[in-house]
Structures are given as structure tokens and as C-alpha cells.
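Morning run. Coffee first, then this:
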Amino acid sequence: MEGVSRPALERFARRAQKLARTAGEVDIMIAGDPRLRELNRRFRRKNKATDVLSFSRDGSADTGGDIAISADYARRSARLYGHSQGDELKILILHGMLHLAGHDHESDQGEMARLETRLRQLLKLPCSLTERAASARPHRATSTRAGGARSTRAPKRSRLR
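And here it is:
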């Protein structure tokens, strides 16, 4: 993506992983809408592209996982919300990390949203996905994760592929 540095995203991912308390190794894939549509259809039975998907390994929040991000969605959202594509990718990485740590904004009475807002401010990022959804803007976050309790173990590492 234009103006996005892989090393900078890897450094950010490691920092977000530590702040979110996401244990284990995390792989991050950045792909196009067709690939995210395929994953969303396969794992969530929703035949549409989405912004970010998170998958825990072994169904546990203690073992790391995978995050899939749509570069196309990130590009459109960055334009819509008036910030850089790099910032949008960071927002999506943070959101995915929180899901891997065991948070679920669809069922936690706002706990994930409050944490995401606090971390977003700490990381100096624009409006988060949960804040966007709460304000009823055009963009709706759709993420998934396998269950598991919040982890307190130190993270191992994050890497982009």
C-alpha cells in the first residue's frame, strides 16, 4: 500500500500486541477484498468482504493467532475518515489484537470499546472501529474470534506476511 512501511507496521504490531496483552505468536496477512470475502464466507458464512478477521489458535486466547486485514477496505476507510492508510492498518491491527486477547465488542457491554479507545489514544491513532460503530457512521466493523479468556502472559512476537 502507498506510504506504508512493512517494518513500521511490524513494530506497531508488536507494541499493540503487548498493550492488548495478546499472548503467543501472531501472524498478520494483508490481502484484498476477494481473499477477505473468501475467509469470511468460509469461517463466518457471510459472503461479503470485511475489514478485519481474527482467528485464535486452538480456540484459546493464550496461544496467539492470525489476523487478516483487507487492504482495499483500509484504503477506502482511510479516504472516508480522512487519515492515512498506514493509520487505518494500525487501527485494524489493534482491533484484531484485542479480539485475539479474548475481547468481544458484540457481547461485553462496552469493555472492549473502552479499552480500544484508551489504547488508540495512547498510540495516537484516529477513531477506532468500535467508536465508529457506536457513532453510526457508514463503516461497520465486523470481526470474529474464537473464544477464550483474557491472557496475562507476555506476548512472543508479531509478524506480517
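Helices lie at 6-20, 33-44, 71-81, 85-100, 111-122, 129-134. Good start to the day.
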